[in-house]
């Protein structure tokens, strides 16, 4: 049994192949077509697929071949590899390695924005906790470094999060682009806290750049 027969004998559907490629299919079996600029789901996917927008159609092998830019045999071999299907290969050709699909600029920005929001949100939670936990109880009491950090940075981190939540796309892109290095520093700062280094972290703020202030982010 060759690779084409093996894939079809195992009943691999276009829907299974598409979902394996990361395509989201709604309850009606419709999906946004990956083969043209499709804003609304126009591709029907079940055992086979058909796009009402661009006319692309075929079976699971056709879908994978089109999606990854492969020949049909390589596509069939990739399906066999991913779904654990055995087949006769008299020529001893190994199935092709899985190909990672290149992310579009929009997808790269979306990932960076989500990471930026997550890191800033986690940091803000720490700052709020420190402000409450280490607040001095007496006028003559020396202020804890983490309490000082919370007072210094909480308002500015809230301001950055407001931009990510409510600002136009152009401002969000500017923030993610300009403050990428600072977000990495904050992430390392949070890793210090998770490792139980809170007590000494305040000393690092001025030496290692682990902390981020309003001044050095603008």
In terms of DSSP E residues, the strand content is under 5%
List the uncertain runs: 198-218
Broad shape:
elongated
Query: What strand order characterises the main sheet?
Result: 1-2-3-4
Distance from first to last alpha carbon? 64 Å
Count every helix, treating DSSP H or I runs of 4 or more residues as helices.
Answer: 9
Helix content: 40-55%
User: What is the arithmetic mean of pLDDT?
Assistant: 81
Radius of gyration: 26 Å
**Run of helices and strands:** HHEEEEHHHHHHH
| Structural class estimated from helices and strands | mainly alpha
Please provide a written account of the structure.
The chain has 218 residues and is mainly alpha-helical. Helices cover 54% and strands 5% of the residues. It is built from nine helices and four strands. β3 (49-51) and β4 form a beta hairpin.
Please sum up the structure shown.
The protein is mainly alpha-helical and about 220 residues long. The protein has 9 helices and 4 strands.
